[in-house]
Amino acid sequence: MPTDLVAALPMYNVTPQLAQVWRELAQELNQRLDMHSKSGRLEILSTDEGSLDAIWRRSDLLLSQTCGYPLTHGLAEHVHVLGVPIFDAPGCERHFYSSAIVVRRADRTSSLEDYRGKIAACNDDDSHSGMNALPHAIAPLAIGGRFFSGAFRTGSHLLSLRAVCEHRADIAAIDCVTLAFARDVPGLTEPLRTLGFTRSAPGLPFIASRSLGRDTLRLIGPALNDVIASHALLAGRLRLRGLVLLPVSEYQPILDMEAEAARAGYPNLLWKTLARR
After folding, report:
1. How far, CA to CA in Å, does 92 sit from each of 76, 87, 161, 171, 240?
2. Residue 271 above 70 pLDDT?
3. 145 partner at 20 to 30 Å CA-CA among 58, 154, 206, 213?
């Protein structure tokens, strides 16, 4: 195993306190691996030290977590999937998760149809939960490839939630695990409610660089599962129940949802509705 490795776990850093718990998980994993092989120093990277895409492609990456969308759009050839987490959150079923379709609590609406002509917010282009899942849900309702009057990128799920709270957007699709963590923060989501959930897909996998080698990679997944199983308090704070081993091919539902929306004439959320705020 290399003497110096890196880790980055940015996907569910809803608060600084939660980010620290994710760092603790990575350090516990490194210590567990050190029992089998000298794993050396582990540096925990923050996302402002480089783009996530660049971090995920680092040859010294011991642990990170990615969305299924980049995994199915080129990242898989660079990384090894260590396992798919089982999260304790509404909208999760075993290792599958979905997007919560979030609207304002005060809106007198009951279905997606009520949001025709409204404005949607999404976190980023390469997010399955924020960008890919919602077009799939509304594609059957679109007319001529149009449904929303506008849509814009916010940069994160938390900023999408804020945009809906502040009436800059009317609706957003939010990773259901992110939403569960956000609901733990007093005042953050009180003005919002969940209108429904999108079709589910395998959750955000933990990954490592393929460059670490087969023998090392064989140890990391079981060691991570051991950390989750043996540190109940840490796992509970992260809503983690365990890991499921899955091949990349099991992420086909994400590609299927993208293709179904495109066939219905609604290839992405910003299609014919591009607006920025």
Report:
1. 23, 7, 19, 21, 11
2. no
3. 154
Distance CA 71, CA 266 (A): 22
Per DSSP, 264 falls in state T
Taking only Cα atoms into account, the Rg of the chain, rounded to an integer number of angstroms, comes to: 19
Beta bridge partners of 172: 102, 121
Q: Copy the structure tokens of residue 54.
A: 């660049």
Residue 240 CA to residue 45 CA, distance in Å, equals: 21
241: which 2 tokens? 């129940």
234 within 8 A of 99, measured Cβ to Cβ: no
Tokens of 160: 């999408």
For residue 277, what are the contacts with CB-CB under 8 A and spacing of at least 6? 152, 163, 168, 169
Distance CA 3, CA 39 (A): 6
Distance, CA of 24 to CA of 45 (rounded, Å): 13
Q: For the chain, how many residues are written?
A: 277
Tokens 């695990």 sit at which residue? 177
Query: Quick check: 2 pLDDT over 50?
Result: no
- Tell me the C-alpha distance between 87 and 236, whole Å: 10
Predicted confidence at residue 1, as pLDDT, reads 45
Residue that wins the pLDDT comparison between 100 and 274: 100
CA distances (Å), 82 to each of 1, 170, 268, in order?
16, 37, 29
Rounded Cα gap, residues 129 and 133, in angstroms: 5
Can you list the domains of the chain with their CATH numbers? 4-65+206-245 (no CATH), 96-201 (3.40.190.10)
- Alpha carbons 74 and 126: distance in angstroms, whole number: 11
